[in-house]
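Notes on consecutive records. When two proteins share a document, each keeps its own sequence and its own token line. Never mix them. Below: protein one.
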Amino acid sequence: MTNEEAGAMLHAYVDGELEPSRCVELEAHLAANPAARAACERLRGMSAAIREKADYHAAPATLLGPLLAQVSGPAASPATSAPRPSIWRLLPGTGVAMAAAAFLTWTIATGYLRPGETERITQEVLSSHVRATLAQHSFDVASSDQHTVKPWLSSRLNYSPPVIDLSAQGFELRGARLDYVGGQPVAVLVYQRRHHVIDAYVRPAHGPAAAVSLTRDGFNIQSFARDGMEFWLVSDLNRNELSDLARLLAQNPA
């Protein structure tokens, strides 16, 4: 992949709109190219600054109500509904009306259709799991001993992730690795259930964490938070057993 190709995909990647197979290619390029990685982080920073600091203003009811009515259609049957005045007659001029309607339509579309932080993290952990599976490099430290895995991770991160041994419950701890999610290094605990590998991404929670439970490209993904940490589980293990692991991780002390 060339720098030009990577640059063309960065906006879609940061917005969480890049398909997983392309994410794998781009992330491999970013890992090997500090300049491209720096450009990606600048773009992420700008996106985060806009989300956090931009001023938002509610549309006036005289604009929002009629426009939504035009989009959604009549709420009652034509026989019982009075004709609606055209939205253009409600605004002072056609030019202003067109600009306002276009802006409001864009605001509604971006607010409801653009993937947010949760969707972006979902795509990142899925791409990371697929990349590790294809490379047959699931862990950097191979050990089923939580007292070996936890110090290894803690010495390489600016936080100490909980490491829980669940072999007695049928989820064998195989080891751990470091990866890069949400612009930060994260701990990845690697569990195994029969022939299924489960990656558990653990990072400090940044505000309230949305619980996720979904299937994407044949993989089940589940997230939850506990004790100030956010967990993201990814595997081809069936949803019920992945939920069992999530429950055990949420309930057992580290």
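Protein two starts on the next line and is unrelated to protein one.
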Amino acid sequence: MRKPVTCTCGEPRFAVRLRRDEQVALLTCAGGHHALLLDSRDYWHDVIQSGRPREVRCRCGARVFAVDLEYRFRADESSVRTVDVWLRCAGCGAQRHGVAFEIDYEPTDTLVSRPLDPCPDPWRKAKQTELTALWVPDDLHALVVHLVEELRAHCYVGGWREPARPCSSSEAIATLRAHTSWTLLFAARPVELPGELRDCWRRLPVIQLETPITIRYQTGKGWLHYVHYANERFVDGELVAQDPELLALATRLRAWLQSRFTSVRGRGTFDNPREHERLKGGW
């Protein structure tokens, strides 16, 4: 089934911004009304943290398109399986495939009845914090002990293809030693974690650390750790303040990092002084 898209104001043509890999698209009609396409809202706010998706441009130079949605249903026709987005240039009439949405949930009725999800302020971002650190394993272990035993944080750890589970500091450290790939999460109160842990700190009141990146600097090999947490979060499309208890935990953690590590490399960095001295000048 193929269906043309029309703005609530009646305008059938749009400027289009999209990201194929993330399966998100924003349509803006000539009247300036913004709408997210299909289920783009689920991922949009994460996508724009790294920059705005580019506006689609036809080879003729035009940037306005008519948009058609081609729905493909599952065998029993009970729900939508995929939606192909087709763009027809308002200038030269050329047609191109924009993006394909793969749908892995039910029900999907609203994808057909209301494909446009109005979004008056699509560029609003959540405040988020990223800290980086050049550490050796003992530094990470010390952080776990400090958060769990001194700050009384709830700790969760997941290994490669293993769901995250609550654990003590010693259990977390044992997992870090036994696995080459892991995810660490800390919370001020118990939280229910999703099966997919990637970037869940953006949506949940947690401080998250992943397996460090191994970098071969000109001066040697180092392990760069990332610490992430959100100061604000999007909940059901609405921007809300982070849990105050989580922010208090993060503040106490940063005070501990400042007392133990060096920030010579720049703002938001907390390096082991010896590692920084060994590797400096190599990046």
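For the record: The chain has six helices and 17 strands.
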